[in-house]
Amino acid sequence: MFVRSLSLGVAAAALMVGGAQAADLIIPTTPQPIYAPAGFNWEGLYAGVQGGGEFFNGTTYGVIGGHVGVNFIPADPILLGVEATGEYWWNNAVSGSEFLINARIGAVVTDSVLVYAIGGTGIENTGGASNGIYQLGGGVEFAVTDSISVRGQVVGLGYYNNANFFDATKATVGVSFHF
């Protein structure tokens, strides 16, 4: 009788364990991505506007203009780019325009911050006369949305027909749309 009771107890325990296992559901889960999504994409075509001031021989000029360019990142965090700018400058006595082709080299400091150096050559038109000019300087650019950035830039301007290295300084603030 003891063996019979023991057998029934073992059989009942086995049935309960089997029932408990049948109640455990296997729920499939989606694995989490291993990588984090990338930050702002600095590569590609961009266009924008800028404004500021130009300081030449103790005189201040207002500056407004536009820029269009393209950036490449050959190796993280190095950025290389080409940019064309066109600007109009004025004060109470005189006005003119500048058109420059620039090269940019920079470093993507964080996903949303770019620090760069810029240098270029072009032409300035004033009162019917044209002069060859160059610029050299730098700036910082901040991403504010997935496709818009703001930047501040300071450059020194020089004339090819003048002995001074820099004849003027220009400081601008701009907004760019990245395509």
From TrEMBL:
* Record key words, sorted: Signal
Give the signal sequence positions.
1-22
Q: What domain of life? A: Bacteria
Do you know which InterPro entries this protein is assigned to? OMP/PagP_B-barrel (IPR011250)
Protein name according to UniProt: Outer membrane immunogenic protein
The protein's organism comes out as: Devosia equisanguinis
